[in-house]
Amino acid sequence: MASHSHSLSYVGCNFLRQRLVLSTLSGRPVKIRKIRAKDDNPGLRDFEANFIRLIDKITNGSRIEINQTGTTLYYQPGLLYGGSLEHDCSPSRSIGYYLESLLCLAPFMKHSLIIVLRGVTNDQVDPSVDVLKTTALPLLKRFGIDGEELELKITRRGMPPKGGGEVVFVCPVKKAVKPVQFIDPGKIKRIRGVAYSVRVSPQIANRIVDSARSILNKFLPDIYIYTDHMKGTSSGKSPGFGLSLVAETTNGAFLSAELVSNPQGEGVAVLPEDLGTNCAKLLLEEIYRIPMVWQM
Fold it and tell me: What does pTM read for this prediction?
């Protein structure tokens, strides 16, 4: 084992991604002990081990040591290298779980990052690729990370449990980011969204749009919800449908809400009308939480 005397020490599985991301950016090695040590199934989960493999791919010279039970992790970060990569994500978490960390690391790599991620694009746990595309990318642009190279594209959708989706993320390199002062969120000016369906009737997406609009049109006229129905190889391996909504303010703030149908064979069946209505109400609740005034 390598000498761990100068590493930062943490206990537990909480904030595992954040600790590894900050360790990579700062160059400080970390040691995380007692990862679910008292659990019936102790140690790292498969999606966490998969995330560690992704970190290893995008860096050069990283040292990763895990004990036999998986309850202790030592990580000495290497150089953020980037380049053209491919990665198969764990189907137990969506691609958004991995993308959230890549968005923090990608601008600071040696070479522009072009990565293909495969797995579940939309689930009930993590932010979907649709939401990250409409909220996180504009946030990066505020820090001066923009240009034609910055892109997040869904080439195939994959729903749980089997996944089968594919996403391409491209990010340019920036030596330094601009400071941002963002105090006034502004007023809501428009709402955009995507109703998607895979391996089900294409009419389901239209039913979701109609039910969501019946709620949102009472407050705002500028609403447009796209329908996205993928067929064949682009539709992944499992059936499902969902809706992601994003409200944009006059000052460029973004508020999001999303709902996804239950995975095949799990839970009760969800009606498209109920999903659209509930997602619209979730967005209204998100707006209600911050001091905003509707622009009528």
Answer: 0.92
